[in-house]
Amino acid sequence: MKEIFERVSIRKYEDRPVEPEKVEQILRAAMAAPSAGNQQPWEFYVVTDRQKIEALAKVSPYAGCTANAKVVLVPCYRTSGLRFPSYDMIDLSIATENALLEITSLGLGGVWLGIAPEKERIEKVDAILGIGEGLHAFALVPFGYPAESRPQQDRFDKERVHYI
Length: 164
Prior knowledge:
Layout: H1 2-6, H2 20-31, E1 42-47, H3 50-56, E2 71-78, H4 88-105, E3 109-110, E4 113-114, H5 119-129, E5 135-137, E6 139-144
Antiparallel strand pairs: 1-2, 2-5, 2-6, 3-6, 4-6
């Protein structure tokens, strides 16, 4: 569980490809996430095409770091056939965090860039990737071998804990 205390947002990456087996391990970690009623509302796009990555880097004012990533993971959520549709964003959040923790575990670095619930951003990503009806982009997770490092901040605050 050390990755929980080591993970930081990494926005700069080495010019070095990420091995396919590491990408698959990240996807396995994401899909191991719990979900409401085990509905698993996720699908994942793994983007390595330079043109698509450069286009994704322009979908929001915060996505510029995507341009130098070797891989961009795009978790997506289904909008139909769900038993508990109001939990889809929660389910995707857990899966995305699992992916980020596995990225750290594998010696890689990545960052979570919010797309949902911003309708304009969702539509831009969906159009760039050709995501069909009934499936929508949730986030961008650019990752690769880190070209920067820093320690994680200790965010523990006793004042936010209440014992009853």
